[in-house]
């Protein structure tokens, strides 16, 4: 009798779930591809000499409960206001003060979509990369919102991500994936195929042009201070590259990040600040290396089970040549999507938190590793 019970237990607890799993795996059409070899390794040259690995120790939190996943942060120097896009569709404005407690959050414009990247146009307008809507132009007074483009060369924008504005008014932006929308972005990561694009929009001619395609989740973008090239991040491939505008050529700036790069911001003082949404954890390393694991993870994700996790997010400071200078991070930190230096403070946006995180760089500087 005991043997019969144990056999039945084995059958129902192991054999049947195993058969179901095998059947689901075989029937699922999701087909992950091997990733480029350079995306599977971390480069020791991407580790800076200066570190602050206790970011949260000195962190302050702005707009707690009033900012719902503020993904990107753009600072308007003349007004002293931060503009940030939230998951509820609001582009919000946040006043910047010496004391974080004095900051005021204002509901400015609701796009009706999911505003991500934000930049300022040359005529006082606010340009928004809205993941759902496309590329938007909001008048400086917030009274008019105009759709600039929602397709490029016959292909719809599926996940409009980040935007930057050149001095001549031309807009450059990323479409992270033409296949998956923002609610499905994890499947773009897992599929391991290049669906991202780098795109330009000329407000004078109203022409939208694809500059680069076949990018691995095209994400943050910034224009160089001399206006000769763009710097853009590929999150899945863990690298940032230069795109020379006149020459139409690409050159890798930095690769083999210790984490996954998201937005990139120039600080006006010779540095880029690159947000890292997470370190490359062991589960991430294994899944990136083995496509069959990514398929299993995708099947679990379809049933609402999250097998991958993010931790140890931060912001990496590099010079204009891509040489790492300092890294501000913390192990409990995750989903940090933007980092902007305003005065002596580093302000960070997030896809997870309901506030902007701020760190005083003078009080809590990155220091040499022992």
UniProtKB/TrEMBL annotation:
GO biological process: response to jasmonic acid
Compartment(s) where it occurs, according to its Swiss-Prot or TrEMBL record: Vacuole
Origin superkingdom: Eukaryota
Pfam families, alphabetized: SSL_N (PF20067), Str_synth (PF03088)
Glycoprotein recorded as keyword: yes
InterPro entries xrefs: Strictosidine_synth_cons-reg
Main location: other
GO cellular component: endomembrane system; vacuole
Family, as annotated: Belongs to the strictosidine synthase family.
Protein name: Strictosidine synthase conserved region
Organism: Arabidopsis thaliana x Arabidopsis arenosa
């Amino acid at each position: 009798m005991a043997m019969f019970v144990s056999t039945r237990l084995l059958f129902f607890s192991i054999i049947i779930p195993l058969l179901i799993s095998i059947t689901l795996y075989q029937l699922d059409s999701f087909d992950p591809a091997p990733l480029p070899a350079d995306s599977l390794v971390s480069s020791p040259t991407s580790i800076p000499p200066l570190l602050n690995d206790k970011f949260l120790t000195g962190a302050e939190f702005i707009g707690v409960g009033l900012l719902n996943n503020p993904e990107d942060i753009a600072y308007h120097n003349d007004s002293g206001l931060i503009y940030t896009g939230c998951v509820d569709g609001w582009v919000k404005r946040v006043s910047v003060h010496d004391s974080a407690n004095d900051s005021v959050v204002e509901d400015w414009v609701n796009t009706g979509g999911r505003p991500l990247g934000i930049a300022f146009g040359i005529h006082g307008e606010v340009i928004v990369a809205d993941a759902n809507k496309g590329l938007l132009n909001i008048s400086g007074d917030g009274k008019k919102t105009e759709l600039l483009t929602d397709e490029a060369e016959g292909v719809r924008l599926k996940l409009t991500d980040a935007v930057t504005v050149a001095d001549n008014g031309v807009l450059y932006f990323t479409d992270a994936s033409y296949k998956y929308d923002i609610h499905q972005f994890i499947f773009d990561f897992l599929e391991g195929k290049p669906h991202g694009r780098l795109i330009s929009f000329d407000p004078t001619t109203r022409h939208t042009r694809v500059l680069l395609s076949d990018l691995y989740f095209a994400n943050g973008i910034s224009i160089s201070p001399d206006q000769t090239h763009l710097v853009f991040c590929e999150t899945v491939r863990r690298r940032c590259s230069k795109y020379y505008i006149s020459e139409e050529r690409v050159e890798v700036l930095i690769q083999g990040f210790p984490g996954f790069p998201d937005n990139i911001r120039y600080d006006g003082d010779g540095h880029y600040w690159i947000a890292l949404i997470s370190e490359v954890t062991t589960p991430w390393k294994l899944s990136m290396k083995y496509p069959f694991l990514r398929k299993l993870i995708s099947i679990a994700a379809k049933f609402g089970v999250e097998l991958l996790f993010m931790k140890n997010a931060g912001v990496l400071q590099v010079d204009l040549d891509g040489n790492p200078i300092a890294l501000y991070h913390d192990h409990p930190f995750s989903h940090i999507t933007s980092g902007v230096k305003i005065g002596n403070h580093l302000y960070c946006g997030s896809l997870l938190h309901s506030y902007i995180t701020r760190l005083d760089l003078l009080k809590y500087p990155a220091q040499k590793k022992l």
